Amino acid sequence: MKNNLKKLLCAALSTAMIAGSIVLPMTASADDTTGGNYAVTLDGNTATIHSSSNAYAIIASYDSDNGTLQKLDYQQVSDGSKINVPSGARIMLWDSLQNMRPLLIEPVNVPRKMWKFDFGDSDNVATGYYSVTKDTAYSTNTTKTSDGKKFGLLGTDEKAYEVGTHIDGIDTQEGQVVVVNSGKKNTVTSATDDFLGAVGGAPIKGEPAIEGDYPIRFSMDAENDHYYKVKVYVTGLNQTKDAVATVFSERRHPIITEEKIAAGETKEVEFTATLQNVYIKGRDGVKDFTYNDNMLNVVAVGDNVAISAIEVEEVEACPTVWMYTDSTGCDYAALQPFFPLQNYGGTGTFLSKYLPKGVAISNQGDGGINASDSVHWNAANANIGKGDFVYVQYGHNHKDDGPLGYLKAIPKYYEKAHSVGATTIYVGPIDRHNTDQFDAETNTWKSTLNGFSKAAKYYTEVLITGGKTEADNFVAKATSDGLDAGYAYADTVIKKGITANGAKDVVFIDLNQPWLDWMKAAGAKVKEIRGSEVYEKNAVDYYFRGVRGGGIDGTHPNDAGADNGAYLFMQEALKLQNNKAQSVITEVEANAIKPLVTGMRSTATPYEVSETVVKACAAPNKAYPEVYVSLLPTKYPTTIKNVVFAEDGTIQSVDVLKHSVSEKDMSAYGIVVITIKNSDGTEKGKIYANAQVDNTVNGTQTITEFRTSTDGLVLGEGDTYTAVVYRAKDAGGDEGLIVDTDNPDTYSAVYEPMTIKSSIISENFNYEGKTYSGDEDLAGNGNWALAGSAVNTGKLGAESADDVINRRYAEFASTGKKADNSSDGSFYASKKFDVADDSSETVIGTSGKYLIEMDLSYVSGGDLNFGLTDGIDNRNPGGKQSITLFNVASNGSIKAGGKEVGSINKGKWSTVRYILDMDNGTGTIQIDGFDPVTYEFSNYSTFGTVSPTQLTYFLLSASKAAVDVKISDLKIGKLEQEDLPKKTITVDSSDSAMGSAYIGEAGVTEKTVDMNTNFFEDYERELLVVNVLMTKDATCTYVFNHHRDVAAYRTHLMILELKLMNELVEFFPCGVIGKEYRQMLVPHLLTIRNQFQQKKNGRITRPDLICRKNNGIWVIPSDALQKRVLPFLQVQWESLNRIRTFIGEDDRFPDYPYRFVGKTSEVTHFCVALCACRKLEGISGKINLPQLVKDTCRLLNIKVPDRPDLLVERVFNCKNRFLNLDRFCRKYKEEVQKGN
Asked: Cα–Cα distance between 1139 and 1134 in angstroms, integer?
């Protein structure tokens, strides 16, 4: 009897719930009660029953708008029972389901959970509403709702860019801040009479704002896996003008798009939202993560748009469409300023515009996944419930397994949905729009993905007719015998008609052919607007994602395209309703999908690109806004970070980094192509990736699926390879992903592997006992030291994901000022090279090829030098001999070799790779996303001795500059390199009568030696020795000049020797001369000593100009003193070009454009006078020095001293005004013969 009554009650309650016409009494008569103590107490949504006997709790839920009954539940209870009840419900206690007598005189009303927000100025807040002003930023608002929920505006503060795009689907770049203004009607009497609207973007870095529409964004804390009915009141910020409004919910699910609101009017926009966990693939170096959604979001954007009020009500679970889809259907963020044609758009996302307002959406899709995905599928499928819909749209990423792999993967979606009473919708994928799909003559498009539609349609129809078992048999048959055999089996099942086991909860909606048909119609419409004579493929480009200055994506629609795709879905669903009598299968599908089309927003229409945009030229054109970029762009959109081959030479994986911002827009998928070459340089074959480099996903992507151009292609011993990312297209069928030769483009620099022969530094900043809290000093760990006069710090830090450290780094910062801020200061941070395996000191010498590589992240400041050095001590914190590899400038740009070579960005890690080739005298630098740049490294591209001769430290240095940069994964190592080439030196004489030149022995005028050999030339008769470092082929010609007497010739000899000395000096710009050359310069410095020595009270006042005598041998002063001597030597000559003939080309002297450098000091006058002496006629054994000074000054067009005789007397401290050239030359020859 009880069971029958229970069934009767359930039937009655179900009927009442569907009809919505039964309203339970507000009160119950006391005469109907049985006596006893009964009560219900509430704690939020938990009801505690107080009852002296067993009873039944009846819970009635009502619509908040019209009061009609929405749902009835009952539950047997006893004293102390606790039950969950929805907001706004009424609770009654009955004694039994037989008697149905009330035990409570008054039903207990459960208060509705509602939150109301009044947008506008704080002095016009309606009763019962929370105030939201233009200053109510979510990040800083301390006012909360009565139940402790935080709320406020997003995007209005300088930290707006830190809000992830997964929150509300708005992409904010660093430096973008939305400006919000308030407005109100003439009379304010309600919450909708005042409002807030966005009036533009205000970049905080000083760049001009980009014109366009900016969103007003609102968020409030809410509960995960809860459902909310939301009403947004939208109006015009300027009440005298119309507004054009677009409203999004959650992660940019559109409710209305570009709807006109008349001046002075307010539009109520209603929708239902649910907050569910979503698994999100990591971007920009962030690991994949599950977003536990606990924020309810509303975004309004458009011309003159404002929000006046928002009302949120928590409701019972409602029908939800759970979307499982790839990058053609998932949620995407919108750029600012907002422009629908520049955003990626998902067809699944845009369904919210058309679905009934009581249906929610949870989009679980993501880029780069297919039906086999499990992580996205498992993120929230436990919350799929009765009455929900599971939307499955895949195909694009089944490149390796095709329709058969897709067919094998899709049963799990139906199995889960069916088990909980939900309906599965299999959706045929939208297609691409590549050139080879388009027939211009007929304006038709060829499908590349209809095989997936076919598989889904067959699977659905077998389920409907034969049931799950037959569907499993169909999949098994296709798996074992191929798709055609599977389809043949399916035909036999379908032909039998619907059986008792047939499914009632599955639908197939094809978007593939409708999408192709729609592209045809859209193209024809554009042709009409353009007035074109022919159909053009690019006519539908306006509906695919593109940004100004970039290309058009061949696969992914923009908001306009996604909107049309969603509209096509709803139209196909309506066709099922209208044609349900067409077949028994259609009738089942029509009934299954009916809740999605009943009450759909029938007045909504899809986006149509305007004539203004079309007439502005092919997409993307000047109608598209400029893209705001705060990050410095890379040249290429991707960088190949690593290529891994197995021991047997087969390819294993390739890591590709997709950059956030690049000069080149990545408008299509990329494909990795590896070219293998034989040891002789000929091509052996190519390896192609089967999986795409996804242009919609920033961060590192690992490719693991490949095919080869020839069977058995491997990387063999002695082989080399390069790798590049090219623009790709999907050819469909067995061919899959291929290089797009119709639209050729390169998406990465060339990757070339390097083999480190021996490690010099391997620094990952992982030190035992450190917490990496950000305040631990680096100095004292790993041979690091900090020095300099500025306020400098070096701190250890780390980045973590899921409480696991994935990167350790050091952050180097300097204020550029001394502690008391009195003056500028210096900064040095150095790390000594690691000890070699044999415990000896590691040294980088003057030969070899070296790799210096590190990851850098820019923070602030600039002008930080990265280099190598030697001889660091307290007196020389920057080392005694140093070289600078590159410099990080104030905006994160990097300079090397005197030019900009790339950039690094704030908050991003970029790998900087530097190759120092000492043998060839070059430096090569490459930064992620840029081509390598090679330039001549002057220190090592010389015929003289290279300098520095040894390096033992890695060095960071800055002077008078505030800097802050992070460094991670520092590596320095010696590279494997090929054998060095041979170089040839040739000598010649300009006049055989005067003398001959030879190498080593008479008659030998040419010799080939190994590159970088120290080579000696012997010149007969002149007894000159020239030491040459062979970095290039060289020709040396000795030019003899004919003078009237021996004295003049000897003068010429002296000039040649001074010239040689000067050239050697030119080769040492850092000011340090190698030891092996010091003896060669002794005679010259002896002469200069004698000439420039000054005495005062018997003491030498210019010790820096004096060669010291050690054990009877004259030697060149120390390195430090050399640097002080060099300025006096270098004023003697400024070479027109670096001469490679040390003794030759004497005939150019008369025309040499001497240029005065520095002040007209006595020393300078004398130096230039000596340089010009051979230009004077009639030179005798003695030179009249005062006259020489006069003549030289006139020659150089500089002021002649008033008393040159006094000048000479003062310089030489003697009355003798003549220089005895005979004595000078004789002394010089003696020194040369002695080997000094």
From this structure: 11
The pLDDT > 70 percentage for the chain reads 75
The span from the CA of 399 to the CA of 370, in Å, is 9
3-class SS string, 1023-1065: CEEEEEECCCCEEEEECCCCCCCHHHHHHHHHHHHHHHHHHHH
What's the CA gap between 571 and 566, in Å, rounded?
A: 9
Residues 6+ apart with CB under 8 A from 3: none
Burial (CB < 10 A; 0-12, 13-18, 19+), residue 1181, is: middle
Higher pLDDT, 194 or 532: 194
Tens of pLDDT, residues 1041-1069: 333 333 333 444 444 444 444 433 333 33
Which amino acid type is present at position 940? Answer: Y
What's CA 844's distance to the chain center, in Å? 34
User: Backbone dihedral region of 604: left (phi > 0), alpha (psi from -120 to 50 degrees) or beta?
Assistant: beta
Give the helix, strand, coil percentages of the chain, each rounded to 5: 25, 35, 45
> What is the rounded CA–CA span in Å between residue 976 and residue 779?
32
DSSP code at position 201: E
Angstrom distance (rounded) from CA 625 to CA 629: 12
Distance CA 828, CA 809 (A): 18
Verdict on whether the full-model pTM lies above 0.70: no
Owner of token pair 């009560």: 39
Contact by Cβ (8 Å): 190, 233: no
CA atoms within 13 A on the CB side of 1189: 24
DSSP code for 1213: T
Residue 98 has pLDDT above 60, yes or no: yes
How many helices and strands (H and E) does the chain possess?
Answer: 19, 66
**Which two tokens mark 699?**
């961060």
Look at the alpha carbons of 1202, 1204, 1206, 1211 in this order and tell me if their dihedral is positive or negative: positive
Work out the pLDDT band at 542, boundaries 50, 70, 90: very high
Is 75 strand, coil or helix? strand
**pLDDT number for residue 418:** 97
Query: What's the pLDDT tens digit per position in 912-958?
Result: 999 998 877 889 999 998 999 998 887 776 555 567 888 999 999 99
* Rg of the Cα atoms in the chain: 42
Q: Which two tokens stand for residue 993?
A: 């009568």
Query: How far is residue 867's CA from residue 1022's CA, in Å, rounded to a whole number?
Result: 43
Burial of 675 by CB count in 10 Å (0-12 exposed, 13-18 middle, 19+ buried)?
Answer: middle
User: Which positions ≥6 away from 379 have C-beta within 8 Å?
Assistant: 277, 278, 279, 290, 364
Q: Which residue has the tokens 């004292």?
A: 780
The Cα–Cα gap between 341 and 47 comes to 51
Predicted confidence at residue 992, as pLDDT, reads 60
DSSP secondary structure, 806-818, as one string: EEEEEEEEE-SB-
pLDDT at 313 over 90: yes
Token pair belonging to 705? 């699926």
Task: Give the angle subtended at the CA of 361 by the CAs of 359 and 363, to the nearest 5°.
Answer: 165
Cβ–Cβ < 8 Å for 478, 403: no
